[in-house]
Amino acid sequence: MLPLTLGVFLMWFWLGGMSPQDRIDLWNDIKNANPIWIVISFIFSILSHLSRAYRWKFILEPMGYSPKLGTSLAAVMTGYFANTFVIRSGEVLRAVSIQRTDDIPFEKAFGTIVSERIADLVMLILIMITAVILQSTVLIDYFKREANPIPSIIGLAVLLVLGIIGLRILKRSSHPFIVKIRTFGLGILEGVKSILAMKKNAAFIFHTLFIWSMYIAMFWIVTLTVPGLQGVSMGVILASFVIGAFAMSATNAGMGAYPLAMAAIFTFFGYTEADGNAFGSIIWGTQTIFNIIIGGLFALYVFVVRRR
């Protein structure tokens, strides 16, 4: 309930902070969005979901399971549908779905989903690093204008020292809580190693790259629906994409947080707040509706139609 409550509050805060004319302009921007680009964004979204469903087979096959692409896709979309209403419940329901359709034990299916999330986390980190590199000049200029660099340098040095001390504590401490953290970290590394060690690791890596390429393409194509954002650089696209990814995890499907984050990040890069609001509303609204309708139909098939 907490993320949902936060999402409702952020929606109220976001829309309540606009003037009546701003809300009218926002609605006009949404109505005037070119439907062709929206349809293309849906195509990119579908391709990413199909690739994710197919990629799942590469982790399940070594355990002796080979689900059909249709039931794998149904599980993936059911997960997205669930996340819209109960944050992070999609991973659980996805495992339940594939258990119902293909008799794959829940714990094994859930373990493979965790491995997938590790690969996705690595991709997000790589995109984040690329965005920082591409926008390094803008970030440096910002810190020169807005802040004294000495406190930032001291802060980074302190963080580095604390990081080294923290790693030594994690490595040597026998405290139960520290041991759990160490075990969790080692489990993540083990998951990454298992991905690299699988027989079809090249295909898995290809689909991982393809999935995230589709995500970025879907993000970029929606900028063409907002006149003020046409021609935006790839550096800005990647930086905004990363911020949006974190916003999506803060509330149910990014409710409230995503439009606010897009308005803030595009304003930071010199675009108008109105353009950021329009973009955030269009991409968040269309993808949420898509996940509810398509994911809801798949969930209906898995838990009602197929059961009967």
TrEMBL record:
It comes from the Bacteria. The chain crosses the membrane at residues 36-54, 118-138, 150-170, 202-222, 228-248, 255-272, 278-304. Pfam families: LPG_synthase_TM. Keywords: Cell membrane, Membrane, Transmembrane, Transmembrane helix. Its main location: membrane. It is found in: Cell membrane. The keyword Transmembrane helix applies. It is a multi-pass membrane protein. NCBIfam families: flippase-like domain. This is YbhN family protein. It comes from Dokdonia ponticola.
